[in-house]
Amino acid sequence: MITRNNERVGTKVTDLVGNTPLLELASVSAEVSDIRILGKAEWYNPGGSVKDRPALWMIRDGESSGALTPGKTILDATSGNTGIAYAWIGATLGYKVKLCMPANASEERKQILRAYGVEFVLTDPGEGSDGAIREVRRLYAEDPERYFYPDQYSNPANPRAHYESTAPEIWEQTGGEITHFVAGLGTSGTFVGTASRLKEYNPEIKVISFEPESAFHGLEGMKHMESAIVPEIYDPTIADENRRIATEDAYEMVKRVARQDGVLIGVSAGAAVATALEVAHEIEGGVVVTILCDGADKYLSESFWED
Description:
This protein has two domains: 2-46 and 157-306, Rossmann fold; 52-148, Rossmann fold. It contains nine helices and twelve strands. The chain has helices spanning 26-29, 52-65, 81-93, 107-115, 128-142, 157-173, 189-201, 247-261, 267-280, and strands spanning 2-4, 7-10, 22-24, 35-41, 73-77, 96-102, 119-123, 147-148, 180-184, 206-212, 241-245, 286-292. The chain has a six-stranded mixed β-sheet. Strands 7-6-5-8 form a four-stranded parallel β-sheet. Strands 1-2 form a two-stranded antiparallel ribbon.
C-alpha cells in the first residue's frame, strides 16, 4: 500500500490476491430444492485464477528461506495458470520466469505468458503435466544455482495458501453454514489446504474431491491420479469421497453457466460445478461450495463452444 500524509492513495498488485467473491449459481441451484450451490470466483485474482494464491505464498516463502534471491530465475512446471501467476508476480518483484508446460495448453495462456515476457518450454501433450514435470526436473538438475524451483506439486506452501486464505474466506462468507466442499485435484493444493481448514472449523463438513474419469481428458491442470505422477502434497485420506468427472460434462456445464447464469467460467470450473450439482442431488438441504478456478477467457478458442 502507498500512502501520502498517512492516507492511502494506492495498492500493491500483490495485495489484491484473495478475498474473491462467492457467487450463487442461480440456475444450477434451482435444479435442487433447499440447497444453495456457491462458487468461489477466483478469476478476480490479478492473474485471473486460483493459482495466484499458492504462487504468491511459494515465492514469499522462497524469499523468506533464502532459496529465492535477486538474480535467480523462477522455474517450474505448469499447465498454464500457475505459470501466469509466477509471470505477473515475478514481473512485480523483479524476477525472471521460465516455465515448462504441455504443448496443448490453450493459446490464450501462451499469449498471456508471451505478454509478460516469460520463457517457456513446450512438452509432449500426450504426457500432460507429467511431461512438464520431468522436463523441469531435468533443467533444474543441469543448473540448480541459476534457478529457484518452487515445485508446486511438492511445496507445502501451496496447500498452506489455501489453509490460510481460501478456507477462512469461505467460512466467513457462508457465515459458517457451509455443509459440503467440492474441489478438483491437480497439484491438489486447493483441495488439501481448504478441506483441512474447513474440517477444523466444523468436522461435520463433507469434503469431496474429484478428478478426470480417465487418463486421457481435456481438463487442463487436473490429474487422473491412478495414471499420473502423484503430487507429494496430496493426502488422499482428507477427502470424505473422491469422484470422477467426464470432460464432456465439464464442457456442457461451462456453456450452461454462461447461457443461464451469465457467468463465463473455465473448463475445470465447469467440472467443479457439475460435480457440486451431482452432490447436491444426493443430499437433503445444505450449502455446497466449490472453487471456480478461473474464467473462460483462456478457453474461448476451444471448439466445444460451437457444439
